Amino acid sequence: MQVTRHPLLSPAPGTQRELVSLHYGQPGSAAGKAYLQASLHADELPGMLVAYHLRQQLDALDAAGQVTGEIVLVPMANPIGLSQHLLHLHLGRFEQTTGENFNRHYPDQIAAAADAAAPELGADAAANVASLRRALKAAVTAAPVETELQSLRRTLMGLSCDADIVLDLHCDAQALMHLYTETPCWPDCEPLARFLGARVTLLAQDSGDNPFDEACSQVWWKWAKHFGDKHPIPQACMSVTVELRGATDVTHELAAADAKNIIDFLRWRGLIAGDKPALPAPQGEARPLAGSMPIYAPKPGVLTFLKEVGAEVKAGEVLAHVIDPITAEVTELKSPVDGLLFARDFLRFAFAGMRVAKVSGREAKRTGKLLGA
Ligand SMILES: [Zn+2]
């Protein structure tokens, strides 16, 4: 295993942060490349503990000569966010300087890479993939950056943009294990959902503002569209945001099991030697992200839930009460659809207009940008 340190652009004299990546196996291996990163939202800690357990398991596999693919593990993807605290609260989702979400606005080099690779493309899909990856990596690493945040995004994209498998480990506030991926990735993601025991996988295409996972996967279906019938371009990257339940689900038991399930998936995909593990039975299904319905509190007050995460609910069913302590008025928060209550907030005071839970329905109902702040 090799440890690589990537210095970020220094935001002020005397300060310098770095991103650290761990490299297992052989670059350019025919078995393919997997890129795994934890805690891009720096206050989402389950992924960091899963990365710790992944590292133990990968070290052992490495020592036994069993890592046949290339596996890159970034155990802490956001050194900027890890250092942001305000009044004793950890603020790891948005950069304090710009207010930008650390998981949005990944650079788009799709056109530049397409132009650079075009003269090399032909009828061989695998050769096209190799050419486009080379061109994309060159375009990503050559792009100028002006801020520390931009240099973090460039570094993460540079490490991941040529991978076959990208797993971005996040969590929700209180939630079931669930996944986000682009619709063209679903056939490759379905086995991962089984290994991880995901209760729901939310599918969208170009959901808006370029989150990390979509920046990695969208290049392929956009290039396929761009080149049309001229050259075969497969969906060569399966990129997934893995929501490792809730923010306080940070236990060795869960993390060791999640790490083992990820290793089993990588072995199933052939990046680790040994017999393919049997595919577990699915614990859930894919549903449209546009059918994931936010539950808003129209009035402020004390929030108390009547339903736990994991509840299958009906349209009109009351999920929570918001209670005005002055007037004793009770506002019922109802599900707008039949679906799975898969995530809810951990705060118990709701401000007016606050999104407090999410119910995953089967029908796409929303339009426009599909991700929350
Ligand atoms: Zn997150």
Describe the structure.
The model has no long low-confidence stretch (mean pLDDT 97). The protein has helices spanning 46-63, 79-82, 110-117, 125-142, 148-160, 186-196, 212-227, 252-268, and strands at residues 2-7, 18-25, 33-38, 70-74, 85-86, 89-90, 165-172, 174-175, 178-182, 200-204, 238-246, 285-288, 292-297, 301-305, 312-313, 318-323, 330-334, 339-344, 349-350, 354-360. The protein is of the alpha+beta class. The strands form four sheets. Strands 1-2-4-3-7-11-9-10-12 form a nine-stranded mixed sheet, with helices on both faces. Strands 8, 13, 15, 18 and 20 form a five-stranded antiparallel sheet that branches. Strands 17-16-14-19 form a four-stranded antiparallel sheet, with no helix packed on it. The chain contains eight helices and 20 strands. Helix 3 (110-117) packs across helix 4 (125-142) and helix 6 packs across helix 8 (252-268). The chain binds zinc ion. Zinc ion is lined by residues 41, 44, 103, 170.
Characteristic key phrases:
single chain, 373 residues, nine-stranded mixed sheet, 28% helix, binds zinc ion
> What portion of the residues fall into strands of 2 or more residues?
25-35%
Class by SSE composition: alpha+beta
- Alpha-carbon distance between the two ends: 37 Å
The gross shape turns out to be globular
Cofactors, ions, other ligands? zinc ion
Low-confidence stretches: none
Q: Taking strands numbered 1, 2, ... along the chain, how are they ordered across the largest sheet?
A: 1-2-4-3-7-11-9-10-12
Helix count, DSSP H or I runs of 4 or more residues: 8
Rounded mean pLDDT is 97
